[in-house]
Write a structure and sequence with these properties.
It is globular, with a radius of gyration of 19 Å. The strands form 2 sheets. A 6-stranded antiparallel β-sheet has the order 3-8-4-5-6-7. The protein is an alpha+beta fold.
Length: 226
């Protein structure tokens, strides 16, 4: 992948825009501001700068998407982040609810050489501890257009493929309930009175769990054939 030197701020923008537009949509100024927790006025100036540097394509009133060079750089940052998360979990004993914030701090300082040494030491993993695909050194990443548990039909048998990793408390809750990547769940016939989704672990034979709608939207699932 590319080797240009970018500031931490630029890397954060590229990663945020990638996440907001990876399925073909454009990223609006307000969505970028919300993702980065900054003011929309600041986003406008940075987007102009990124466009001048050839990292994004900006259509007025339509939004922003990454250019090819911008996509390469975003995937490079994501690779660093996800390799770091994996190394912290597997080699340094971090729990999966602690690694995201730590990797956010380290991803801007770690060299590509260090990341590749970590990857080799881990056996070149394809996914991070939360089930997210790790981009290859060539900038290739597995498609991740997955449904969430919140979208599941009653009675569906599903496998948890990945979970969002931004919120430590939610990750701890998922781990405590056994809702981790690789786990099979069967969705109950109807929601609970408070709207939670009732699921049984291990294809119906395991314990039942009531999953709130908020948490269900952070759990990505695939069907038997997925």
């Amino acid at each position: 992948m590319g080797t240009r030197s970018l500031s931490r701020s630029v890397e954060d923008y590229l990663k945020a825009i990638y996440a907001l537009s990876e399925h073909g949509d454009t990223a609006s100024t307000s969505a970028i501001a919300e993702a980065l927790d900054i003011q929309p006025a600041s986003v406008t100036g940075m987007v102009k700068r990124l466009a001048e540097d050839g990292l994004v394509e900006h259509a007025p009133y339509k939004g922003v998407r990454l250019s090819e060079p911008g996509t390469i750089e975003a995937l490079r940052v994501m690779r660093r982040h996800r390799i770091l998360e994996t190394y912290l979990c597997e080699r340094l004993g971090y729990s999966w609810d602690d690694v995201h914030a730590e990797a956010e701090r380290l991803e801007h300082a770690a060299s590509d050489q260090l990341i590749e040494q970590m990857s080799r030491a881990l056996g070149s993993p394809s996914h991070d501890p939360h089930g997210a695909p790790i981009p290859t050194t060539a900038g290739v990443i597995e498609e991740t257009d997955l449904a969430t548990l919140a979208d599941a039909q009653p009675g569906a048998r599903l496998r948890i493929r990945a979970v969002r990793d931004e919120h430590s408390a939610d990750l701890r809750s998922m781990a405590e309930e056994g809702l981790v990547p690789g786990t099979w769940v069967t969705v109950g016939p109807e929601p609970t009175p408070d709207g939670s989704i009732l699921v049984s672990l291990d294809a119906g034979s395991g314990p039942k769990r009531a999953v709130t709608q908020e948490l269900a939207r952070q759990i990505y699932v695939v069907t038997d054939a997925g």
